[in-house]
Design brief:
The protein is of the alpha/beta class and 241 residues long. The protein has helices at 17-39, 57-65, 83-86, 92-95, 117-120, 126-145, 159-171, 181-188, 190-204, 219-238; strands at residues 44-50, 73-77, 104-108, 148-156, 211-215. It has one domain: Rossmann fold (3-Layer(aba) Sandwich). The termini are far apart.
Length: 241
């Protein structure tokens, strides 16, 4: 049976660097304008990024934010919880990271860890991660009802492309810090992670916060697609940018 991720055309790309740069500059300017409109509104913006290791989430976030006012945006790179965080409900550590009115929070991995890595690695019991779908939907509905604009992106790559990027990182002394044994361990459970992601799409795709699937084999294409989708959503909220 073909899954949602199977239907992605991961060969999509932007071939010319000049075309990429032109599109990037135009979209970054629109997002800067949108940030000003957001600042003067009663809304906030929350962006969630999930996907396999080395899918390019960090690169997307960097280009998305590099022309924005840094005083109004915060990027959260979510790693394993601290001992204090583990002593609370798993959503507890995210509440303090929710942006104030007029501001933006970007999550490089998120509360979806409960139904992804915590499920696959058995960090959460079966009844816990199964309950997580409902808890996450309630959490997101609360955020949206409170004035948040919430967008969720899953950046996907092929298993072979992930291996190529892992090997390049391992060989590059300036990027060696980006690769760890945990990444290789996750790769060995590729199929389990994909299965968890597919169920996540089905169980947490909602009218107020749907999933956007991004073809990530070609980084330029992924970056432009994410920014186009964000511009479109902000135009729905504030009008033409």
């Amino acid at each position: 049976m073909r899954t949602r991720l199977d239907h992605l055309d991961l060969d999509k790309q932007i071939e010319e660097k000049s075309e990429y740069r032109e599109k990037l500059r135009g979209l970054q300017l629109k997002l800067l304008h949108a940030q000003r409109l957001l600042q003067d509104s009663a809304k906030s913006l929350i962006l969630v990024f999930e996907g396999p290791d080395a899918a390019g989430k960090g690169g997307v976030i960097k280009r998305l934010t590099e022309r924005l006012d840094p005083r109004l945006v915060r990027v959260w790179s979510v790693v394993k919880p601290t001992e204090e965080e583990k002593a609370h409900h798993y959503l507890w550590r995210f509440w303090s990271k929710i942006p104030a009115t007029g501001q933006t929070a970007i999550f490089d991995r998120s509360w979806y860890g409960r139904v992804l890595v915590e499920r696959v690695e058995s960090f959460a019991k079966k009844e816990e991660w199964k309950r997580g779908y409902r808890e996450i939907l309630d959490f997101e509905r609360t955020l949206v009802d409170g004035g948040a604009i919430l967008m969720k992106f899953f950046v996907h790559i092929t298993k072979s492309e992930q291996l190529r990027r892992f090997e390049r990182r391992a060989a590059d002394p300036y990027k060696h810090w980006k690769i760890s044994e945990e990444d290789w361990r996750n790769r060995r459970k590729w199929n389990e992670h994909i299965l968890a992601a597919e169920e996540m799409f089905v169980r947490t795709n909602s009218r107020f916060a749907s999933w956007n699937l991004i073809e990530g084999n070609y980084k330029w294409y992924a970056r432009i697609k994410v920014m186009k989708l964000l511009v479109k959503r902000m135009e729905q909220e504030f009008g033409a940018l």
